[in-house]
Amino acid sequence: MKDRLLTLLGAIIAFYLLFQLLFPQVSFEEDKTSLPTSEDRGKYGLAGLYQWLDRSGVPTHLLRERYDTLANNPQLAEQGNLLIVSLPLRLDAQVNELEQLQYWVSNGNNLLLLTAMSDWPQWAARNMGESLTTMLDQFDLQLHDNTPEASAEEDEATDQVESTTQALEKLLDAKEHKRALAPTLPHPLTRNIQSVAVNWLDSEGINWQVDGKDQQHSTLVLLRDEADQGAALWLGFYGEGKVLVSRHSDMFGNVSLGLADNARLLENIVNSLVSHGGRVILDDMHHGLSAIYDPDAFFRDPRLHHTLLFLLALWIVYVMGHTNRFVQVREKVLRLQLREHVNAVGNLFARRLHSSAIALRYAQHFFNDVRSAYGLPQNGQPVWELLQENAAIDPHLLHSAETRYQRAAQHKKVNLIKFFNSLNIMRRELT
After folding, report:
1. 0.85 exceeded by the pTM?
2. What are phi and psi of 260, to 5 degrees?
3. From residue 47, how far is each of 54, 71, 120, 161, 243 by CA, in Å?
4. What is the dihedral of CA 381, 386, 388, 393, to 10 degrees?
5. Cα–Cα dist 323/4, whole Å
6. How far apart are CA 362 and CA 426, in angstroms?
7. Selection from 189, 335, 182 nearest residue 274 by Cα
8. Burial code of 336-373, b = ≥16 C-beta within 10 A, e = fewer?
9. What is the 3-state secondary structure (H, E, C) of the chain?
10. Pairing state of beta strands 208-212 and 141-145?
11. Which of 6, 110, 272, 303 has the fewest CB neighbours in a 10 Å radius?
12. How many angstroms separate the CA atoms of 113 and 105, rounded?
């Protein structure tokens, strides 16, 4: 019993060390934060948006790969698609995929950017200045704070990304309030819209503005905040496509979609920007739902934990089985015989000698046997002529053996098995 307990303790220690080596600093705690993805049913998820579009018969597509796959995706039309992106991105976009997204929009597709500039949900509690500024810069748009103090500082600033980040950090301790957005002018996107419900954080008078870098890329303000008349939804143009920018990321989330005229606004956007054959595309890739291998998701998968526990239990059952693994191994006593000695010596010579030398030596013994049968001196000389005169010898077999003997005499490699078989057959025919 003591041996078995010692075996169990050793198995547990070995498993612990192996687990620490293979899976260092692994956390099995799942992230409970609601994310803007098509599968999330929490407060900020877009599962309700995805199901509403699907039940309404709107063609949809879940993007689980990077932006550079949009142009070559066989399921998507070349033009007339709408991509919905929530900013900031949990997984940063690469330079090449942003360039491909820029080309995709300019080719006649559309982009809706739901940015956390004013609501700042829990999933966006991170530095988003660079993510948002980089995305807008791809489409010749720029973001700035339109308050007088911010305008004076902006004239002296040399780094737009840094100033944006510092301003956004002021939102972290703000309190959430309900606000309403109203249309600024008649437009197909604001048709039949009275009010759009959103969340707002009390944030020291931040007044964001999205403008074009030049007159050619100017923006149109579609919605304003009813309380302070701050712009909240901008429409920009890039090539043959359009870019919609909202400063409220949760405008179409699970909780907000059914409020006020939010669903009607989304309906207007889909009807105006999605053409025949186009699809509404939800960006799941950059918020954690990816078709690409994700090591973090792999280690969070409960199936991995169950598999490891099963293997641990199976291993413990094995080491604690009937056979005591700590019993001293008994060595098998080998009883050597003359046959083993002959085989060992033969193998030694076989590895050291060339096949031609072995063939010549075996042929000498054969020739002496033939000479003994004919009463000739046993000097190991070839007797091919005598064998040719013997009617019992197969001519083809004799020719094959003689050919291999000639190769051996020239110190060439010989197939010993076929050569020995030929000589043994002829030996039996002579007897």
Report:
1. no
2. 45, -130
3. 11, 25, 19, 32, 23
4. -100
5. 10
6. 14
7. 189
8. eeeeeeeeeeeeeeeeeeebbebbbebbeebbbbbbee
9. CHHHHHHHHHHHHHHHHHHHHHCCCCCCCCCCCCCCCCCCCCCCCCHHHHHHHHHCCCCEEEECCCHHHCCCCCCCCCCCCEEEEEECCCCCCCHHHHHHHHHHHHCCCEEEEEECCCCCCHHHCCCCHHHHHHHHHCCCEEEEECCHHHHHHHHHCCCHHHHHHHHHHHHCCCCEEEEEEEECCCCHHHCCCCCEEEEEECCCCCCEEEEECCHHHCCEEEEEECCCCCEEEEEEEECCEEEEEECCCCCCCCCCCCCCCHHHHHHHHHHHHCCCCCCEEEECHHHCCCCCCCHHHHHHCHHHHHHHHHHHHHHHHHHCCCCCCCCCCCCCCCCCCHHHHHHHHHHHHHHHCCHHHHHHHHHHHHHHHHHHHHCCCCCCCCCHHHHHHCCCCCHHHHHHHHHHHHHHHCCCCCCHHHHHHHHHHHHHHHC
10. antiparallel
11. 303
12. 13
The amino acid present at 59, given as its one-letter code, is P
pLDDT in tens, 109-141: 999 999 988 888 888 865 555 777 888 888 988
The residue-averaged pLDDT of 359-367 equals 91
Query: What amino acid is encoded at 88 in this protein?
Result: P
Nearest to 195 by CA among 228, 229, 224: 224
Please report where in the chains the tokens 């829990």 appear, as a residue.
122
CA distance 168 to 125: 10
What residues contact 5, with CB distance under 8 A and at least 6 apart? Answer: none
- d(CA 262, CA 255) in angstroms, rounded, equals 11
Lookup: tokens for 356: 């031609």
Q: Which amino acid is at 22?
A: L
For 409, the token pair is: 């005499």
Scan for tokens 């010749």, then name that residue.
Answer: 140
CA neighbours within 13 Å on the CB side: how many for 394? 12
* Burial bucket for residue 63 (CB in 10 Å: 0-12, 13-18, 19+): buried
- The Cα–Cα gap between 63 and 283 comes to 5
In this predicted model, what pLDDT tens digit does every residue of 151-195 receive, in sequence order? 444 444 445 555 555 555 554 556 778 889 999 999 999 999 999
Q: Which two tokens stand for residue 360?
A: 């010549």
CB 82 within 8 A of CB 281: yes
Domain ranges of the chain: 47-287, 338-430
429: tokens are 């025919």
| The two three-digit tokens of residue 152, written as one number | 């004076």
